[in-house]
């Protein structure tokens, strides 16, 4: 017996064998049975849920939203015949536009069919189709036989094209001490926040238009510098940190940015203010009499003062002993309330009435809270012995003259004002004269005592502006009259009663005020205050051995600007960083600020050449900013360029000129104005995409080069003093 189901599945020809017999003869035979398969079942549209997507997007048409089933037809033969194509988008097959007007259920099962919206204001799109098994006509949908096309509906959701709204934009002002000893301000959602109902926080991007000028942004998770953008999620996670550059004496910075979304929409530029306060001593040195009573150290806060700030005080004993020579308040925490810029910390100076040496201690600021420390972090206090109830010298600004000095005494100026600020100005200190006869020590020998010359007849005229300064004391030494003065100026001694002596010139020997030695002026000598050129040339070119000079220390770069008075020749010498040179009044005022070790000074700035690690321009700019707290060198004059070229060893190096922000508009990354250029050729400054940073090449000529890639070179960092 033939199994019909087996025959249907086999779909092969069937054979039957038989025997015919009449009793006498038999004959074998065979006949073939051919079965024809009949497709009687209609295909059924089992799913037609439609599609939903955002405008402009593409979405797959999967079996979950569109499916045909048929018990007697394979999926590769179940076909969707398209009667009407989508109006506001297109159907895609394997990533390309569908060209034929049909696709199969197998294509849908393989995720090969997709729809892409073309944009616009449409909300509904559709395409219509007929389902067929390629044999029967018609298909079943919702239990009914259908011969007309049915629609596959596509719902299009419109995007909210408004950019994320800025909810918080407040000044970031909370300063924190970092683990590496630097100070920084975390930028969080409390100070900067943007939101959008349809956009996740990680897709709300803050694009940096102008980064901070006096510090840099850092991603605390990766440790890398943030130069282009960060997200709202980064702000929520507190990983955006502004690191304060301590070398800049500023109290604020800013960040210019735009808020963007995934569609590319961006809002107007905004500025986030970064502000902080700086705490330091008002002055670095105090000199007070032993009987002063109370010394008030002033501690100042500059910059942002809206919030509270704190700093602790530490006392380091030197020759002065805490509890014996001075006492301090029990609290060492200084609190600045909102709006407060000055605080006083009172120290009680102990007066024991004994004659003793001057004593010194120092007060140091440390551990600031919500502030950074300035340059004057400590103050040195020198307690001067009262000398029988009377101070002979005092150096302190901010102390009461009435309490500390006799009525006939005048306050001296600070040591920083000893050098004339301009030709013809005078800064001199006046010391009260004793009514008794004086003595003078010279080279360890006691000179005989002489009666004081009538001081009213003698005066000291400052050369250049005619101001008259009286001598602090006058002594007679044999046939010479010796005047004692203080200060670094060109002076001439005159007598009021003698016009013949009015133009008599005197030699003025000036010493460092810190050594507390006296200047000697002889009325009989007729040498001018500044030695003439012949004398200067002779002294400068003679060796120290020939002069018999012995300096306490060798002249090094650390001692540059230090003055030393050599008693053997009664001359003042100054260290120029290499050797001791004879000082004269025409010498320039020495800048007390010094370059860091290993840096070179030139025209008010410090320079450092990095030649052992060649890098790209972007890496060089980042290293100068983060590692050396400066910027790539800028060039202001032709002479400056020649100096830099020699400083670099006459090898190519990066400088700070670039046009990355505005192609064709060149600017220094340190913010200085462009006052000088030195292009190799006219075409060498033409900016191309990716080639807009300057490399100094042969003979100091400039060439635009690739900022991010290409050949790597040396670079020069600079910092202003």
TrEMBL record:
Pfam families: Cadherin_3 (PF16184), Calx-beta (PF03160), Lectin_C (PF00059). SUPFAM superfamilies: C-type lectin-like, CalX-like. CSPG repeats lie at residues 42-132, 166-260. One of its GO terms (cellular component) is membrane. It is found in: Secreted, Extracellular space, Extracellular matrix, Basement membrane. CDD domains: CLECT. One of its GO terms (molecular function) is carbohydrate binding. GO terms for biological process: anatomical structure morphogenesis; cell adhesion; cell communication. Belongs to the FRAS1 family. PANTHER family: FRAS1-RELATED EXTRACELLULAR MATRIX PROTEIN 1, MATRIX PROTEIN, PUTATIVE-RELATED. This is FRAS1-related extracellular matrix protein 1. It comes from Alligator sinensis. The lineage of its organism: Eukaryota, Metazoa, Chordata, Craniata, Vertebrata.
């Amino acid at each position: 017996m033939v199994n019909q189901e087996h025959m249907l599945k086999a779909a092969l020809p069937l054979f039957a064998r038989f025997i015919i017999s009449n009793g006498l003869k038999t004959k074998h035979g065979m006949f073939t049975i051919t079965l024809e398969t009949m497709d009687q079942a209609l295909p059924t549209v089992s799913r037609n849920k439609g599609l939903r997507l955002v405008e402009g997007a593409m979405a797959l048409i999967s079996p979950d939203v569109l499916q045909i089933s048929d018990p007697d037809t394979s999926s590769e033969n179940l076909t969707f015949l398209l009667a009407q194509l989508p109006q506001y988008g297109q159907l895609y097959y394997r990533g390309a536009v569908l060209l034929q007007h049909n696709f199969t259920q197998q294509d849908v099962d393989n995720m090969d069919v997709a729809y892409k919206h073309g944009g616009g204001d449409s909300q509904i799109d559709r395409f219509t189709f007929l389902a067929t098994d390629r044999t029967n006509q018609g298909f079943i949908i919702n239990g009914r036989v259908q011969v007309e096309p049915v629609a596959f509906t596509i719902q299009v959701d419109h995007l909210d094209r408004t950019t994320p709204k800025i909810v918080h934009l407040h000044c970031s002002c909370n300063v924190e001490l970092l683990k590496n000893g630097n100070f920084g301000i975390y930028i969080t959602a409390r100070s900067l926040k943007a939101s959008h109902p349809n956009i996740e926080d990680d897709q709300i991007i803050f694009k940096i238009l102008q980064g901070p000028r006096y510090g840099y942004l850092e991603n605390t998770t990766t440790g890398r510098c943030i130069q282009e953008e960060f997200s709202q999620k980064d702000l929520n996670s507190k990983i955006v940190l502004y690191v304060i550059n301590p070398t800049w004496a500023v109290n604020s910075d800013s960040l210019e940015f735009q808020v963007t979304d995934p569609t590319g929409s961006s809002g107007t530029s905004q500025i986030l203010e970064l502000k902080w306060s700086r705490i330091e001593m008002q002055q670095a040195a105090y000199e007070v009499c032993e009987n002063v009573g109370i010394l008030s150290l002033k501690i100042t806060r500059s910059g942002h003062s809206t919030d509270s700030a704190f700093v602790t005080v530490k006392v380091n004993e030197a020759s002065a002993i805490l509890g014996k020579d001075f006492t301090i308040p029990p609290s060492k925490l200084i609190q600045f309330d909102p709006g407060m810029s000055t605080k006083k910390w009172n120290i009680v100076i102990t007066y024991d009435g004994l004659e003793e040496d001057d004593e010194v201690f120092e007060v140091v600021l440390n551990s600031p809270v919500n502030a950074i420390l300035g340059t004057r972090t400590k103050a040195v206090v020198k307690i001067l012995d009262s000398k029988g109830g009377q101070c002979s010298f005092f150096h302190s600004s901010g102390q009461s003259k009435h309490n500390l000095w006799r009525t006939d005494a005048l306050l001296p100026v600070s040591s920083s004002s000893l050098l004339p600020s301009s030709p013809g100005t005078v800064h001199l200190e006046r010391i009260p004269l004793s009514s008794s006869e004086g003595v003078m020590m010279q080279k360890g020998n006691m000179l005989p005592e002489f009666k004081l010359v009538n001081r009213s007849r003698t005066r000291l005229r400052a050369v250049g502006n005619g101001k008259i300064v009286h001598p602090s004391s006058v002594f007679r030494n044999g046939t010479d009259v010796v005047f004692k003065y203080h200060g670094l100026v060109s002076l001439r001694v005159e007598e009021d009663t003698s016009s013949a002596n009015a133009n008599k010139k005197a030699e003025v020997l000036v010493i460092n005020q810190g050594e507390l030695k006296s200047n000697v002026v002889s009325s009989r000598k007729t040498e001018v205050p500044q030695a003439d050129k012949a004398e200067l040339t002779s002294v400068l070119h003679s060796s120290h051995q020939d002069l018999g000079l012995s300096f306490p220390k060798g002249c090094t770069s650390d001692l540059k600007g230090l003055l030393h008075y050599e008693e053997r020749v009664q001359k003042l010498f100054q260290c120029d960083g290499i050797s001791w040179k004879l000082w004269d009044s025409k010498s320039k005022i020495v800048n007390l600020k010094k370059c860091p070790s290993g840096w070179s000074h030139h025209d008010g700035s410090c320079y450092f050449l990095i030649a052992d690690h060649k890098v790209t321009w972007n890496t060089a700019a980042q290293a100068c900013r983060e590692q050396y707290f400066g910027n790539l060198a800028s060039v202001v004059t032709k002479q400056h360029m020649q100096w830099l070229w020699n400083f670099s060893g006459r090898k190519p190096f990066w400088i700070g000129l670039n046009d990355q922000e505005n192609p064709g508009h060149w600017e220094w990354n340190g913010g200085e104005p462009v006052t000088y250029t030195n292009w190799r050729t006219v075409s060498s400054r033409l900016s191309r995409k990716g080639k807009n940073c300057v490399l100094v090449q042969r003979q100091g000529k400039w060439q635009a080069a690739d900022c991010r890639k290409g050949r790597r070179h040396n670079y020069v960092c600079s910092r202003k003093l």
